[in-house]
What does this fold into?
Amino acid sequence: MFDCKSEAQKLVSQMTLEEKVSQMLHTAPAVERLNIPSYNWWNEALHGVARSGVATMFPQAIGLAATFDPELLEQVAAVVSDEGRAKYHAYQEEGDHDIFKGLTFWSPNINIFRDPRWGRGHETYGEDPFLTSRLGVAFINGLQGSDPNRLKTAACAKHFAVHSGPEGERHEFNATVNNYDLWNTYLPAFEAAVTEARVEAVMGAYNRTNGEPCCGSKTLLIDILRAKWGFEGHVTSDCWAIKDFHEGHKVTATPVESVAMAVRNGCDLNCGNLFGYCLAAVQEGLLTEEEIDRAVTNLFVTRMKLGLLGAPENKTYTSIPYELVDCDKHRSFNLEVARQSLVLLKNDGVLPLRTDGIKTIAVIGPNADSRIALEGNYQGVASDYVTVLQGVKAFAAEKGIRVLFAEGCPLAKVNDSVLSQFKNDRLAEALIVTRRADAVVLAVGLDRTLEGEEGDTGNQFASGDKLGLALPGIQQYMAEKVLEAAKQKGIPVIAAAISGSALDLRWADEGANAVIQAFYPGSQGGRALAEMLFGKFSPSGRLPLTFYRSDEDLPDFRDYSMQNRTYRYYKGEALYPFGFGLGYEPFELSGAAYANSAVTATVTNKGKNRASETVQVYIEIEGETENWNLCGIQKVVLNAGETTSVTIPIPSEAFMRYDEDGDMRLCYGKKALHVGFCQPDARSAALKGSKPARVDVAG
It folds into this structure.
């Protein structure tokens, strides 16, 4: 049997120090005398194979999180890894070993979306540690496959740890966090990735955590990751993060000291070129060759698990044909995922639209016909895109309905043309089509040019972060004018927010007949949204983050304390709470009970059509700092009038908390489980129309 570690050690023993150091860069060159081909470690697969041409483009990660469905995410990742394998082997046949063409995917991003202003939050699975853990484990399993010794692709959990902005300061920022929040909020998803999913790689963050740069942190990389959790894979730096040690964080004086600190504390691979200084670090006595050997061995083990470097290939993976990439089957599945990612936040009964009374629909807004608004960041290129406008037009054409379109305003500017003499030069057209329509679909929001990564976005305001929760430019002004014109005519308005993060939607909640949060819904998102509008399916998405009412509800962005952040600690009333989402069909839950480490209940679809609902279980413990914690989820799909029983395992950790040393302790306060279709807060119950059942737990 091929032993990856012993074979890797044997190969490393035959290499010169210079050859070993060269393999610690993400652009690892060939070592021809040992039959080691060149390999570029950098590839991305956040919601599809990214940055290397055509691939199936699923909804952005935050949209995937809105499905509240780990099984679905594992299926998504399985499709992504199928396409990654197919593309890799096709590139190999062409001798192309370039960036974004390998089998090591730097995904998923399992940081906690603690503040809605963070530009990269849409890369995550939201604000909750439990949901993030379940979805992260599922995604990693889908990428890596079922055999930890024969990887389909290699996943990477990032960014370790305590990382969520501000983007513009990440190269020198020190995230200060107390031990309770560290262990109970910021680390659980990473622990699950390592101990449950056996993730092959972990990427360090740019920032410092409690004074230590994350990519060279003994606390994070040695004490916690290796010693406490037993991580056996490799660690990579974020891109060019090592130079921040001396240039930004000022914890070292020279590049040589920086690479020595990183490698000595467990960083094996450098995204960038600074690890070239490792040779000097050994020569100056700051590193030993044994430490270099350890790092390169870790890297070679991963390549061998993937069937590379002389390891036996897994024909199940190597035989995946290129023709599978963005095929009809994957595109159809992508559409289904997009359907499940849409969140209905308000509906006064206007949805689903009844086409018999509609002759003309106005589709308005800067995101109505935007391909970028479908994608999010870290994206590939789909072979087919359906914008909101295209989706509505296609569906309306079948019913003989005319669709009028107006941009209404630019995404973030006042005027479309610099030659315009008056402000709001696209507004009049929006009012014109509104006054000629029988219903309005208003598509507003953001795209990756306004929220994203520092240095990887067109954001001109805050290095990818949002300055606040308001819509940019004059979007809200335009929307309010459209709402006013629609009200005068007596026609309904459906507001669709396309964004990767929470926005201030009070204007829509007060004035629109229906409100939809579409996130970045992927290449088929416009088709899915149109189908939802016209009732082809009942929406089932749930919010993976809190929608606050305004900026005034938010603590200081730079404060990493969880106090008054996210649904677990927030003391105010949210506009739309975490876990909330409406459907077209009413569901009923009864008979909730807890026994044998599981919640059981009976769920009935009381509606007239097939639909799905998500059973959510929250634990509330007297005397603990959290309001309550999500600890169980189960998606249920039922035909009209159908009833089923659900059994939801509740992990023992739900009744425990981490102490100051990162060890679990049992909580002794009175415990209650809340079982239903939303959180147990008054706002959620009022919006949802039902309150979760309370089940007291002894002990």
Remarks:
- The chain has a mean pLDDT of 97.
- The first helix runs from residue 4 to 13.
- Residues 140 and 155 are 6 Å apart (CA to CA).
- The radius of gyration is 26 Å.
